[in-house]
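Journal club side-thread
Mid-discussion, someone asked how the predicted structure for our own chain would compare to the paper's figures. Pasting it here so we can look after the session.
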Amino acid sequence: MLRYGSAIALLAVCPALAFSCASGEEAGGGGGGGTHAGGSGGTGAQDGGGGTGNKGGDGGTCKPEAEKCDGKDNDCDGKIDEEDSIDAKTWYEDKDGDGYGISSKSIKSCKQQTGYGDKTGDCNDADPAYHPGALENNCDDPNDYNCDGATGYSDTDGDGFPACKECDDGDKAIYPGAAEICDGKDDDCDGSADAPGGEGDNDGDGAIACKDCNDKDNTMFPGNPEVCDGKDNDCNGSADYGTGEVDLDGDKSYSCADCDDNDKNNYPGNTEICDGKDNDCNGNADFPGGEGNADGDPVASCLDCDDNDPERYPGNTEKCDGKDNDCNPATAATGGETDKDGDGSPSCLDCNDNDKSMYPGNAEICDGKDNNCNNSIDQVDTPINLLCPNGAHVTASVCNGALGCEVDKCSSGYFDLDSTFSNGCECQAQPALTSGTACGSAIDVGTLADVSAGAVTAQGNVPYAGREIWYRFNATDDVDTAGDEFHVDIRFLTNPGNQYRMEVYRGNCPGAGGVQLSSGETQQTDWKTDFNTTSVGCSSGPLPCGQGDCTGTPVLGKTTCDDNGANFFIRITSAGSPTCSTYNLEMSNGKY
């Protein structure tokens, strides 16, 4: 032991005693002190430096750290490879020495100890035959040698025979040596269900042969309902359905099914004849057409071609009513009684049996035909407002016979350009017919200032030949300060088929001083004074060239910029046929 006084002195020299100073009895000095005679060349067992004891050595060389299984005293406690080593293994008690211990009894050690092993899972540590992986190959032995909770032994049905030695461990009545009975099972486990009579089911009726009265007929088995077929269906010893299963009249029909077993002409399935009897046993004497006289004509129903119509029977006189009055398809009324066109009217009444739109009672339409067969055609027979009702925006219609109904007049501002009666006057004039009809009454779209790049669009169409549409606007020129710039542009944004044309006049209408800028134009018309500013005038653009260096207010030696503002007039016409397709015209100033 390190004495108290020495410890104080040592701590003064080495404050971190436990971690930086070593030797001595856990922390002894290098050459003196200590309870086991340290000092230089001392022999104390745990002294500091230079001794020959168990753990002697140079003073200050042992540094405590976690103990490991490496044959060293890592934690400087004087012990080697203790059970608290960080890599110590867990060993399990193995009394029977089979290499497997039990998990509830274990130790930690760097080396295997006697009576311990490194595997667990033993379910019987008193018998080396029990351990994980042990062989289980005897189905008679109920012991769990491999400790997996299961054995190869089973006797589920409790009949005293293990599953491996019987043929059905789910049925306690089946085991080797049991008595074979008629139940469809291999009761004695000899490989077959072989009770006397056999236990198969050859006819598939669900009854095994040893219980079936006829194992070749699936309509005969115990419990089956008896039917009228001449067989013992329920296996009770007799064919005894209903009134019996005999055939007294020899018509091959059993009495239980025959409606008259004393008349061989009456039985189920026989062909019915016109004799007043129920030949086919369906409950009625019903030869096709019947064997009565439902319509009261002179002929019985089975000879009548229609026993629901007293005007149809053999020997009657044929007339034009579309019926076979005499029951003879080869004869017909004068003119014939066919319906070739399928209009529901026989040829002897139809005014045209090759045209299904013509027959008595049909409604008259505008088609140049006598639709109702009254010898009058179209408007002679029916008012025009019924033959040809006015469509949308139509004020008057006409019937043109085989050509059908046509529009005669349209509401103001509407036109029938497609000649289709069903959609009426489908085209509305744009703008209104009274707008912009001449230069003097041109549609005024307002003032367009170049300073704000003013622009406006207009749409229109030419639904009749000769229409012209006029527009006008005032283009103002802002006060230019460094070169004269002014650009009026009129263009078609859309021009269907390039059929629309424009004429543009500057200043006034044609004939009143207006200057024509374009004629027959299909795309655009421009009037501009865009001068490039230079110190000597313009470098490009129309004369006068001085406008390229003009100023907004008079300056000595400079040209004052002109005011190019003016009124512009545009005339729109069509070079094609009347159309409802609209143009889209843009008028701008300073935009381009």
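Post-session note: Residues 4-13 form the longest helix (10 residues).
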